[in-house]
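step: validate -> pass
step: tokenize input -> pass
step: predict -> running
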Amino acid sequence: MYNAERTIKKLKESRQVVIFGAGLVAVQVANCMMSRPYQLRIDYCIVTDMKENLNYITGIPVIGLEEAVYNVRKDAVILIATMEKHRNSIQDSLRRYGFSNSIPVTFESDLWSELQGNYYREHWLMGEKPYLTLEEELTEVSGRNPVGKPIVRIYTVRSHMDKSEGAEISCHHWEIPIQAGASLSGRQICGIRDNIGDNISYKNRQYCELTALYWIWKHDHSDYTGLCHYRRHFQLDSKILEALVCSDIDVVLTIPILNFPSVREVYRHDHVEKDWEIMLEAVRKLAPEYLAAAIELQNGNYYYGYNMLIARKEILDRYCEWLFPILDYCETHCETKEDAYQNRYIGFLAERLLSVYFRSHVDEYKIVHARKHFTG
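step: predict -> pass
step: emit ->
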């Protein structure tokens, strides 16, 4: 089963496909769309200004918008492969130059996530490994709900720093808002806050949503529990959750994020490379049996993002028991960053460690993949 069938059909039938963008997002999109199951030909990568761009990415010529007028068909499908914040201005620019047939596959978009999911299905099957999805694994599950409520509790992380008060915070009864970094603010925005009881709320500037994960580990006792964000939600419904607790599924993760040329190289480009070395040192010293998986991750092309997961509580507990000592080591040995974004380094490292842990337990736990929805 492939997702985004209408988009794929449109791309296959198009007389020309090009990409807008030549940065890291464009590199990932190009590699994905030129591979199976798509095997598309990408003629050009279009950019607004050639001054800060390479002449080629992944073998595709990069051209400016003015040159694109003479080289790109007006009916070409243009995949917008950038960060979300640039999408509207890019679409406006394309329309000014006569291009109206664009499809946003921006980094956080639901469509890009689904296209990556198709890629993984194909490539994992080529390697004789099953790519399991939540919906497909639950199609044959039936039966009554186990006794006891709540069955599944998924916490939606919020912060007093949230950019959009109008975002879709929690539209489902199984999602419970939790205020992360509550000890750093005098504002109370949720009934549940991560500074109650055993907590690390004061570390939120570095740990991001992990201060909420720590609180869940220490205080929640549901059969299944999990974590999502106020702008990133698992695509679920009541029937799926009712079937989940009757199934043999252990862990639900989001569709992996593609990284070319490698996970480590993209991390080096986006963040502080020295922190990666310290993370490997922490794994080597505290959990050496996971070092091979960490090396495989850094040389590979995917990781599980956002620190989002749903898991049987006993599995989440084991994961947290493993994770937080490694993060504490990283916090002790890494330098504090002046830049507020880069100072979230613990959260960034934890995303990659999530992958290290569950890739190491793929034969022990039944792990499935769920789509996420980004509210913008």
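step: describe -> DSSP finds 14 helices and 17 strands in the chain.
step: cleanup -> pass
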